[in-house]
Amino acid sequence: MYKILVVDDEAGIREIIKKYAVFEGHEVSEAADGMEAVGVCREKDFDIIIMDIMMPELDGFSACKEIRKTKNIPVLMLSARGEEYDKIHGFELGIDDYVVKPFSPKELMMRINAIMKRSSGAGMEENKREVVNLEGLTVDFTGRLVYIDGDRTDMSPKEYDLLFYFVKNRGIALTREKLITDVWGYDFFGDDRTLDTHIKLLRKSLGEYSKYIVTLRGVGYRFET
């Protein structure tokens, strides 16, 4: 059972999500805007937050940023807007996933389960430290840390997931479908530009070491060192 906070100024949307979440055995709390969400998170702990972007009082991006100052709770963003800028901005803030309205409640639940599976699995590896050094790029799987030329680099959760997957499968041609299925943890359907957006962000974070991520036209990507 997960403790879920649903934040949306549309009562109908909150009710639909709550209905499906409760049916699957989860506990659901609600907030009608970003300001209320920040206040609720100060008083309670949640396993995951489902947050709309466009809301009165305080928008979803600002609310997420405020909540992240004190608590590291996974966030799944909802939006009626599907512009790439919105996605990039959200992922740079460290959100875990992004769903465009109108959405399938069943797909939403699958995404929630995938996010929680990844979150609960973090740090459960064996105590043996696993670190890979590639020139000036250091990837610490055990500590979930990345260093570029000795300096620690902060990335969004999905950037870490993608980079770790690439490094573990370096030298292998990875199709877009395999990347989405293995990294996102569910049978993805929807806007396939999500992968490209994350690749773009990851390349930006890696700087000169973005050269390792090679685009295979018509296929996908390969991490070459």
UniProtKB/TrEMBL annotation:
UniProt-listed SMART domains: REC, Trans_reg_C
GO CC annotation terms, alphabetical: cytosol; protein-DNA complex
Keyword annotations from UniProtKB, A to Z: DNA-binding, Phosphoprotein, Transcription, Transcription regulation, Two-component regulatory system
Occurrences of domain Response regulatory (ranges): 3-116
CDD domains with a match to the protein in the record: REC_OmpR, trans_reg_C
Segments traversing the membrane: none
GO MF terms, alphabetically ordered: phosphorelay response regulator activity; transcription cis-regulatory region binding
Family matches, as InterPro entries: CheY-like_superfamily, OmpR/PhoB-type_DNA-bd, Sig_transdc_resp-reg_C-effctor, Sig_transdc_resp-reg_receiver, WalR-like, WH-like_DNA-bd_sf
Modified residues (4-aspartylphosphate): 52
GO BP: regulation of DNA-templated transcription
Record feature DNA-binding region, as residue ranges: 129-225
PANTHER family assigned: DNA-BINDING DUAL MASTER TRANSCRIPTIONAL REGULATOR RPAA, REGULATOR OF RPOS
Role played: May play the central regulatory role in sporulation. It may be an element of the effector pathway responsible for the activation of sporulation genes in response to nutritional stress. Spo0A may act in concert with spo0H (a sigma factor) to control the expression of some genes that are critical to the sporulation process.
Official protein name in the record: Stage 0 sporulation protein A homolog
Originating species: Ruminiclostridium cellobioparum subsp. termitidis CT1112
